[in-house]
TrEMBL record:
<feature type="domain" description="HTH merR-type">
    <location>
        <begin position="13"/>
        <end position="81"/>
    </location>
</feature>
<dbReference type="InterPro" id="IPR047057">
    <property type="entry name" value="MerR_fam"/>
</dbReference>
<dbReference type="InterPro" id="IPR009061">
    <property type="entry name" value="DNA-bd_dom_put_sf"/>
</dbReference>
<keyword id="KW-0678">Repressor</keyword>
<dbReference type="InterPro" id="IPR000551">
    <property type="entry name" value="MerR-type_HTH_dom"/>
</dbReference>
<keyword id="KW-0804">Transcription</keyword>
<keyword id="KW-0238">DNA-binding</keyword>
<dbReference type="GO" id="GO:0003700">
    <property type="term" value="F:DNA-binding transcription factor activity"/>
</dbReference>
<protein>
    <submittedName>
        <fullName>MerR family transcriptional regulator</fullName>
    </submittedName>
</protein>
<dbReference type="GO" id="GO:0003677">
    <property type="term" value="F:DNA binding"/>
</dbReference>
<keyword id="KW-0805">Transcription regulation</keyword>
<dbReference type="Pfam" id="PF13411">
    <property type="entry name" value="MerR_1"/>
</dbReference>
């Protein structure tokens, strides 16, 4: 069930106009953040941008940081570090599970 919630949050189904209404950002601001590689909407067959609820949350975080005076390149760097940190944590967890399996057999994890 948790996986279903996560996948629904990640589904790219929201148009840029709705995202603008939800976030209070202008369409131009949203496009600018895409140009600066801070968000990555998908494109429909007609070329329309489609966003997820996660994208909306990210845009709100970006808007708050911009308001605080943080530059877009600093936000992008911070986002990359955050993403990399999650990846490193996942690798560390897999390594630990592998070591436990090697030491104690194959416990159900």
């Amino acid at each position: 069930m948790e996986e279903d919630k996560h996948s629904l949050k990640e589904r790219k189904v929201i148009t840029i106009g709705i995202v603008s209404e939800l976030t209070g950002l202008t369409v131009r601001q949203i496009r600018y953040y895409e140009e600066r590689k801070l968000i990555f909407p998908e494109r429909s067959n007609q070329g329309s941008r489609k966003f997820s609820f996660s994208d909306v949350e990210t845009l709100m975080e970006i808007a708050n940081k911009i308001e605080e005076g943080v530059q877009t390149h600093e936000i992008r760097r911070e986002m990359a570090k955050k993403k990399k940190g999650v990846t490193e944590k996942e690798v560390r967890n897999r390594m630990l599970k592998g070591q436990i399996r090697a030491q104690f057999g194959d416990p159900k994890m």
